[in-house]
């Protein structure tokens, strides 16, 4: 299997119990891994560097984190889905490695849309100033 699109993720959502986040320490990927863990999925991840506050958050959420250069292809093949971070360039060594594994993989936005945000209302807040304040007011 190769790249899996949003519609296939939604259709086969119950098949993905073990999810691996490739480059997990970014703000979005780390938060998404924690959301899936809270939904009851088995979640692990790998990155090149781990630094606070995300490293502390992943540790507190008990998400096993590996170094990218120390994780084997055989281990990655034990997962049902690999979520690939935006930092992995298409056609780069990491992307080619993941493509050759024969494990379903998807982008971070596809995973968020299909596995986390599908059944909720989403409000996007953008702009140069006031995003934090507006977000606070929207949550009250």
Task: Please give the domain count.
Answer: 1
Instruction: Let me know the average pLDDT.
Output: 90
Residue fraction in strands: 15-25%
Give the count of helical stretches. 7
Low-confidence stretches: none
Strand order of the largest sheet: 3-2-1-4-5
Write up this protein.
There is one protein chain. The protein has 140 residues and is an alpha/beta fold. The protein has one domain: 3-Layer(aba) Sandwich (Rossmann fold). Helices cover 39% and strands 15% of the residues. It has seven helices and five strands. The protein has a five-stranded parallel beta sheet, with helices on both faces. Strand 1, helix 2 and strand 2 form a beta-alpha-beta unit. Helix 2 runs parallel beside helix 6. The longest helix has 12 residues. The protein is globular, with a radius of gyration of 16 Å.
Main features:
alpha/beta, Rossmann fold, 140 residues
Sequence-ordered SSE layout with sheet pairings:
Elements: H1 6-11, E1 18-22, H2 27-38, E2 42-47, H3 54-60, E3 65-67, H4 73-76, E4 81-84, H5 93-99, E5 105-107, H6 108-116, H7 131-139
Parallel strand pairs: 1-2, 1-4, 2-3, 4-5
Helix pairs in contact: 2-6
What is the structure about, briefly put?
By secondary structure, the protein is α/β, with parallel strands linked by helices. It has seven helices and five strands; from the N terminus they run αβαβαβαβαβαα.
């Amino acid at each position: 299997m190769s790249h899996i699109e949003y519609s296939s993720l939604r259709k086969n959502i119950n098949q993905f119990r073990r999810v691996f986040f490739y480059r997990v320490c970014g703000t979005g990927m780390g938060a998404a891994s924690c959301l899936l863990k809270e939904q009851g999925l088995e979640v692990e991840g790998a990155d090149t560097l781990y630094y606070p506050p995300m490293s502390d958050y992943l540790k507190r959420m008990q998400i096993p984190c590996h170094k990218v250069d120390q994780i084997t292809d055989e281990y990655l093949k034990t997962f049902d889905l690999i979520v690939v971070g935006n930092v992995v360039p298409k056609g780069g060594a990491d992307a080619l490695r993941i493509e050759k594994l024969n494990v379903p993989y998807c982008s971070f936005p596809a995973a968020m849309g299909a596995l986390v945000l599908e059944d909720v209302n989403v409000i996007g807040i953008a702009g140069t100033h006031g995003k934090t304040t507006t977000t606070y007011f929207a949550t009250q």
